[in-house]
Amino acid sequence: MKQRQRIEDSLVSQILSAAVAAPVAIGLTALGAVVSVTQWVLAAVTSLTPDLDSSRPRHNAARVREQLKAAQQAARKAGVLP
Q1: Angle at 65 between CA 62 and CA 69, to 5 degrees
Q2: What DSSP string describes 10-79?
Q3: Residue among 52, 68, 50 at smallest CA distance from 60
Q4: Is the model's pLDDT at 5 over the cut of 80?
Q5: What pTM was estimated for this model as a whole?
Q6: Count of H-run helices and E-run strands, the chain
Q7: Contact (Cβ atoms closer than 8 angstroms) between residue 81 and residue 72
Q8: Domain residue spans of the chain
Q9: Which tens digit of pLDDT belongs to each residue from 51-80?
Q10: 62 touches 53 (CB < 8 A)
Q11: Banded pLDDT at 2 (limits 50, 70, 90)
Q12: Which of 13, 21, 30, 49 is the most exposed place for a label (fewest CB within 10 A)?
């Protein structure tokens, strides 16, 4: 009878430990998935937003066109361009 009680106690303890371990494993897996998805979403959103660093000068299309035109004229005068 004592041996049967030990087997039942052992079985109950194994079931209880499995019942505790399963939600922990599921929770950790879910947490890892949430962290991965969050990192992916943040990377996607960050790549879509403009750079807010004010130390970099903004692109000025009109000034670039003027510089290109001046460079072309100088190259023509130097005989590099026809």
Answers
A1: 140
A2: HHHHHHHHHHHHHHHHHHHHHHHHHHHHHHHHHHHHHHHSPP--TTSPPP-HHHHHHHHHHHHHHHHHHT
A3: 68
A4: no
A5: 0.44
A6: 2, 0
A7: yes
A8: 1-48
A9: 666 566 667 888 889 999 999 999 989 888
A10: no
A11: low
A12: 49
Q: Which of 55, 81, 51 is closest to 68 using CA atoms?
A: 81
What does the alpha-carbon distance between residue 77 and residue 73 come to, in Å, rounded to a whole number?
Answer: 6
Largest Cα separation within the chain, whole Å, is 111
How many residues make up the chain in this entry? 82
Instruction: Please classify residue 68 by burial: count the beta carbons closer than 10 Å to its beta carbon, then call 0-12 exposed, 13-18 middle and 19+ buried.
Output: exposed
The pair of three-digit structure tokens given for residue 73, joined into one six-digit string: 């004229």
- The alpha carbon of residue 43 and the mean position of all alpha carbons in its chain are separated, in whole angstroms, by 4
